[in-house]
Structure formats: C-alpha cells, structure tokens
Write a structure and sequence with these properties.
Strand content: 35-45%
CATH architecture of the largest domain: 2-Layer Sandwich
Keywords: Signal
Helix content: 10-25%
Protein name: Outer membrane lipoprotein-sorting protein
Largest sheet: 6 strands, antiparallel
CATH class of the largest domain: Alpha Beta
Strand order of the largest sheet: 5-6-7-10-9-8
Order of helices and strands: HHHEEEEHEEEEEEH
Shape: elongated
Radius of gyration: 22 Å
Structural class: alpha+beta
C-alpha cells in the first residue's frame, strides 16, 4: 500500500493540472468516470474503443470516488477509483488505470493496480445471513487455487458461496442451510466423485453443508484431497 500512495503523490507533484487547453479533449474520460461512480460498468465500457476491455471490478463494494490525474504524456490519463470500506468506515483504492486517449476516444487501458479483495463479497453475504437468521456459516481458511471472484447468494434459508479461479476454470461452491426436523442426516465429509466435481456433505452446529470442488471441463484438474483440505480449514 505504501508504494501506491507514493505513486499518487508523485503524480500530483510531478504533473499538476495544467488546464483544459494543455490536454486534448477528454469528454469520454469524464463520461466513463461518471458511469463508474453510478456503478454502470457496461456504460463505462462503451466509452472504450473497439477491442479495448475494461478490467473486471471483482468486488461488490460501491465505488464512491474516481480521480483523474495527468500522466507523463498529454494524451494519457491516470484514473484512481476508491471503494467504500464498510468494515473500517473509510475508503480504499479499488484500481489505478492508465488511459490512452486519441481524438476523444480511449484507445488503450492499462491496469496498474487492482485493489479488489473478492473475499469482501464472502464476508458481506455471511454477515447478511447471520443478521437474518442468527446463524454462523463456516467458510474456508484456505483454498486450492487463487480466488479471483466470489459470489454470494441467499435464497430462502440457504446461502450459497461460489469461489472462482477464472485463470484455470476451477470453482469451489459451499451451500449451507439449517437442519430442519425430519431432514435426513447427510454427513459424508470424505470427498465423493460427482459430475465434473468432487462433493462432500457434513453437518455442524445445526447447519447442513454441501461443499463442491470442480472444474468447468476436466475433473482431472481438481483433486479430492484438495477438497478435504478445504473442509478441514472451514470454521
């Protein structure tokens, strides 16, 4: 984090604002910034030239501020976005992008820093479930891959948390719900082979869990012992 703040200070000191006349027209940049602040990411993408893709914002926390800073070249622009950090009641850096502008079109976007923490999405879903049902949901303390994205969903009294490894098409899915009267006891912590995945089922503290580790195409790309390690780390 220290180098990030040093980078921002350097941008402000070395390249102070020179007025609109010193730079080419950058209406597309301003429109993109406004779209990001309104959380309209598809609209923000539309201000990029064909073939230029906006990096995925991998965290659901709202973006509350976007700063535009001059860069080393007059046809470049630095964008710094900030998340609202609900845990600390403050803001933190979401991303630092360098844009290249030509004839009021953004023809290139280089991601200099990605500050998203996908596990924030996990925490938000688990906290919401606890507030609704006064139930603790166990989550992994370790993963068999680098987590690029987390999706959390509550349907009825069931919570689903999906952790994704976009680079290698692997995923981990945890589904949990309270044990109901008459519900069969399903407690098979040892991983079992399922269609394209390995699954385990367990009960703890009045909650029924189904934990699935899989690959989008090839089961051979995941190992049952990895699922066992995940379950052992859950608390």
């Amino acid at each position: 984090m220290k180098w990030i703040m040093s980078f921002i200070v350097a941008m402000l000191l070395l390249f102070p604002g020179n007025g609109a006349d010193a730079r080419p027209k950058q209406e597309a940049v301003h429109q993109m910034m406004n779209a990001l602040l309104r959380h309209k990411y598809d609209l923000a993408q539309s201000y990029l030239a064909n073939g230029v893709k906006m990096p995925e914002i991998r965290e659901d926390s709202p973006i509350i501020q976007v700063e535009g800073l001059p860069a080393r070249k007059k046809d470049h622009r630095i964008l710094i976005g900030y998340f609202r950090d609900e845990a600390f009641k403050s803001k933190r850096i979401a991303f630092i992008w360098e844009l290249t502008i030509k004839q009021d079109r953004i023809i290139r976007l280089d991601a200099l820093y990605d500050g998203a923490n996908p596990l924030v999405n996990e925490n938000k879903a688990v906290r919401e479930y606890r507030n609704q049902f006064d139930r603790h949901v166990m989550v992994p303390g370790q993963f068999p891959f680098e987590v690029h994205k987390v999706q959390g969903e509550i349907i009825g009294r069931r919570i689903a948390l999906q952790y994704e490894d976009d680079a290698n098409d692997r995923f981990l899915l945890i589904q949990a719900e309270p044990v109901r009267p008459g519900m069969p006891i399903l407690n098979w912590p040892k991983p079992m082979k399922a269609k394209g995945s390995y699954e385990s089922r367990l009960q703890k503290d009045g909650m029924q869990y189904m934990v699935t580790l899989g690959h989008r195409r090839w089961l051979s790309h995941v190992k049952p012992e990895d699922l066992g390690d995940v379950i052992s780390s859950m608390k």
